[in-house]
Specification:
253 residues; alpha/beta; five-stranded parallel β-sheet; 12 helices; 15% strand
């Protein structure tokens, strides 16, 4: 039905994409619909990426346990730091011209720029966009702050409400559910028509400061060694933010 309707791409959504279920599904779809593009994942290592690329995937989602509402790394003892995961998977996948999506850990426009520098072609922004006016859900106030509810698919409430969350975490047949996410709330960010242009402008300014005329040039600079990442001490991170003020107001856009 989806192919007949003219769908451009299918996204296979799983917390751990390097499974026999997803590999077989990719092979099945590619065998029946060779021109239909498939985005697989999630993966965090080159070995995981290889399995899906060998199966015929056209794109990869990268991230495990780095989302704002995800507790997979803490509870399940699996995952990888998001920057390392994006870099390692993108560095391998680019040899096969397979783009990657950085999924998780994006809390500000600077994180988008970092993900693009590390090899990602684009990013997912769950918590950022969940706080916009156009996202599902009603606003509510707590301590004078305008909020929206936001929950992970791995939280117990989501698993109880629908089959999608249970299938994503391979727990649809389990009598005991193990939560890999939480339910919370996010601060209002206003309309997406204001917020997205702000993010785009922030990325453009980041590329300007780095000296890259395009995102392709940005990634090329990293792989050529012209763009470098350095470790920052706690003192460096402190001085890189707001400090030495009695009070201040931060309004980003």
């Amino acid at each position: 039905m989806l192919v007949q309707a003219g769908v451009d791409v299918l996204i296979l959504d799983s917390s751990q994409g390097n499974s026999i279920y997803q590999i077989n599904m990719i092979k099945y779809i590619k065998n029946r619909y060779p021109d239909l593009q498939i985005i697989g994942g999630n993966v965090v290592t080159a070995a995981q990426a290889k399995s899906l690329i060998d199966a015929g995937v056209d794109g990869l989602r990268v991230g495990m346990g780095s989302g704002s509402i995800c507790i997979t790394q803490e509870v399940m003892a699996v995952g990888r730091p998001q920057g390392t995961a994006v870099y390692r998977v993108a560095e391998y996948a680019r040899r096969f011209r397979v783009p990657v999506i950085a999924d998780g850990g994006i809390t500000c426009v600077g994180h988008i720029t970092k993900a693009l520098c590390l090899g990602a072609s684009t990013v997912m922004m769950g918590s950022l966009l969940a706080a916009t006016s156009e996202s599902p859900g009603e606003y509510f106030y707590q301590d004078g702050v305008r909020l929206k509810k936001y929950r992970g698919m791995g939280c117990l409430a989501a698993m109880k409400d629908g089959d999608g969350a249970k299938e994503r975490y391979f727990s649809d047949q389990d009598a005991i559910k193990v939560a890999q996410g939480v339910a919370g709330s996010v601060v209002d960010r206003g309309s997406i028509y204001t917020y997205i242009p702000y993010l785009v402008a922030g990325i453009q300014h980041g590329c300007q400061d780095i000296g890259a005329r395009s995102l392709f040039a940005l990634r090329s600079m990293m792989y050529d060694g012209k763009l470098k990442f350095e470790k920052r001490t706690l003192a460096a991170m402190k001085e890189g933010g707001v400090h030495s003020l009695h009070s201040y107001e931060m309004k980003l856009y």
